[in-house]
Amino acid sequence: MTTTITLPAPVPACRALGCTPAGAQDLATDLRAVAVAVKNVQGWATSVAAPEWEGDTAEAHDHAATRFAVRLDAGEAALDRAVTAADRFEERLADLFDRREEINEDRAEVNEAIDTLRTEIAAATDDSRLEEFQRRAERLTTRAEALQVRIDTWGSDEDDAEADFIAALQAVDSVAEGEQAAADPDRPDVPALTGRLRGLLGDPVALGAWWRTLSRAEQEALTTEHPELVGNADGLPITDRDEANRGALGRDIDYYTQRKEDGQLTGAEKRILENATYVRDALDEYRDRYDPDTGAALTNLIVYHPAMHSGDGGVAISFGNPDTADHVSVNVPGLTTETSSTSGNLAKTLALHQAALAEEQGSVASVYWADYDAPSGNPLNPFDPLGQLDFGGVALTDKAEAGGERFADFIDGIRASDQGAPAHLTAIGHSYGSTTVGHALQDGLPVDDAVLIGSPGQPTPTAAELTDADVWVGSMDHDPVTLLGTGDRGGIGALGHDPADVDFGGTRFATGDGELRVEKLLDNHSSYFKGTSLDNMAHIVTGNDGEVTQQPPRGADGGEYLTLPELLTAATGASAGHALIEAGTWLWEHSRWGAIL
Questions:
Q1: Beta strands 507-509 and 470-474: pairing type?
Q2: How far, in Å, CA of 420 to CA of 480, rounded?
Q3: How much of the chain is in helix, strand and coil states, percent to nearest 5?
Q4: In the predicted model, what is the mean pLDDT of residues 536-557?
Q5: What is the CATH number for 87?
Q6: For residues 217 and 201, what is the distance between their CA atoms, to the nearest angstrom?
Q7: Considering only CA atoms, which of 324, 322, 333, 339 is closest in space to residue 412?
Q8: 61, pLDDT greater than 60
């Protein structure tokens, strides 16, 4: 009777290259960045190949530039094939990763059953269960043998994937092979593909459907030729947008860093380099984090606009893949949002992501979206009048309205690229970002839930007029920004209605009130991604509504609160009293009697 079968775990992918899906993804990203840079140089060489002057010098210049462009074209063709091969290799490794997880789960189950049978056999005192033991042993042997076949097949498939990738790289590792690739009649027609891509921008459903008809080689050729188009095209798969944007990011950092070293960097280019560096550094903070379900990198760079929004830049980064997650949340920040604030805001988004994962309600993706011209600048800097003017936009709705349109386009793209059953989608707006989300909701934003935290106002007096989605409101009574909206007890109302007011009709969830001290009021405003407030948002974004703790809306029975002038007065008094206590404590501790006692 064979009852001692044990099975080894499959070896990690891959043997010779020592890589993982994330490692192959990094390699493809690096190759893609090189291809993007080479195509930029080739484009420049082509543009200068026909000088405006005439004569022998012009002909010589044209001949040299044209030859240079042709030689670069061979490099482009070789790099495009290498990038395509690396991308396919990453996909095969991801599939191997999934299969390996399934095999290991089955292996653990079989070995546990074997151990159980061994224990029972050892404890048996007679032969009464011999036939039962024999039948169970035979079944386990059959399962073990089938599992061993799966392990052997897995190892063979891993070897094939690695061999195919190495062969693909070796096929374009010489100048002659690059020239042969460039002359291939089946080489993607990038100009024609580019025209079609541009024509479909703005229609995410049609764009996504067309993209799926392209070969991987065509997709990669477009990505390396126009990474800024592919990376920011709503409706394309998130992973493809990430690949394109990372290629553009690498190109920008290399190009503008060189211009800086050469002393040629303009003021506008300096902002682009700074924004690119902020994005790179923010991504690098999570470089070693991987999606536990796929083995791919945890972060995806979904939007990359380093030169937009008055130089502030635009960016969107996700933890997890919104295309495949069961629950997707998109976080829109508010006042003073710039690309320079990416790292801090990503930390808040990660906190929500981890809290949502802890709910164990399915897979989760959490997106940080900052691709609008939020009011920013320093109102106290007398040497920056443009910054003061920009900051003053917080009292107006025009940036929220324009941002709402951009946000709606982004969400339409998320819906269009979703794979499988539609994800449970939640829009979260903080501060001025909540007003931005509100304007998008008013125009029919296709989300299931809307979370408005620290909101200075909404464009409609009721939640029912705002959206068909469920509206949740997080509003600390000691957060002065949330007292700016109009309601039963006043408010400036420059940005609209207070969503925490009883007449608005949203569901107000518990956040705590925050500290009643004037120096802590703005800290209250930035504290929604902590404690009870964070827990409740995690319940909401995973559809776990029954666990959400609530508090009465303003104006309801038991929902008493201070108006903005009352809050400022009370907080000032509390701070003064706290300062007196601290001063008295210090004097006592440093006095003779305090020292003695």
A1: parallel
A2: 43
A3: 60, 10, 35
A4: 93
A5: 1.20.1270.60
A6: 21
A7: 322
A8: no
pLDDT, residue 354, reads: 96
Domain termination residue (choose one: 187, 219, 237):
187
Alpha helices by DSSP H, 48-127: 56-123
Q: Kindly report which listed range (83-87, 102-106, 118-122, 149-153) carries the lowest average pLDDT score.
A: 83-87
**171 and 308 assigned to the same domain:** no
Write the pLDDT tens digit of every residue in 354-380: 999 999 999 999 999 999 998 754 433
Same domain, 428 and 555: yes
pLDDT of residue 244: 94
Phi, psi of 423, rounded to the nearest 5 degrees: -70, 155
Query: Which residue is associated with the tokens 């464009």?
Result: 459
- Which one is predicted more confidently, 178 or 123? 123
Residue 159 lies in a domain: yes
Q: Residue 389 in 3-state DSSP?
A: helix
> Residue 245: beta bridge partners?
none
pLDDT tens figures, 89-106: 877 777 787 788 888 888
Q: Is the dihedral of CA 385, 390, 393, 394 positive or negative?
A: negative
CATH code at position 385: 3.40.50.1820
Query: What contacts 246, CB < 8 A, 6 or more positions away?
Result: 29, 32, 33, 283, 301
Determine the Cα–Cα distance for residues 253 and 372; give it in Å rounded to an integer: 22
pLDDT value at residue 576: 54
**Strand, coil or helix: what is 511?**
coil
Rounded CA gap, 62 and 68, in Å? 10
Residues 546 and 415 in one domain: yes
Q: Is the pLDDT of residue 250 over 80?
A: yes
Shared domain check, 176 and 44: yes
Residue 317 CB partners (closer than 8 Å, separation 6+): 279, 282, 283, 299, 300, 301, 302, 342, 346, 349, 367, 368
| 486 secondary structure, DSSP code | B
DSSP readout, 392-459? Answer: GGGG-SHHHHHHHHHHHHHHHHHHHH--SSPPEEEEEEETHHHHHHHHHHHTT---SEEEEES-S-BS
**Overall number of domains in the chain:** 2
Verify that 182 and 313 share a domain, yes or no.
no
Q: Which residues pair with 507 in a beta bridge?
A: 472
- Structure-token match 């009883």, residue found: 502
- Give 253's pLDDT tier (boundaries 50, 70, 90): very high
Looking at this protein, which amino acid is placed at residue 545? D
Residue 304 lies in a domain: yes
Residue 466 near residue 506 (C-beta atoms within 8 A): no
Q: Which of 32-36, 145-149, 183-187, 459-463 has the highest mean predicted lDDT (pLDDT)? A: 459-463
Query: Are residues 440 and 404 in contact, defined by beta-carbon separation less than 8 angstroms?
Result: yes
Range of the domain at 161: 21-187
- Written as one string, the DSSP assignment of 261-302 is HTT---HHHHHHHHHHHHHHHHHHTTTT-B-TTT-SBSEEEE
To which residue do tokens 């007398």 refer? 382
Q: Is residue 6 part of a domain?
A: no
Longest Cα separation, the chain: 107
Collapse the DSSP code of 343 into the 3-class scheme (helix H, G, I; strand E, B; otherwise coil) and give the result: helix
Instruction: Report which DSSP code applies to 492.
Output: -
Mean pLDDT, the chain, rounded, equals: 82
> Does 11 map to a domain?
no
Query: Where are the extended beta strands (E) located within 441-593?
Result: 449-453, 470-474, 507-509
Pairing of strands 327-332, 364-370: parallel
pTM: 0.77
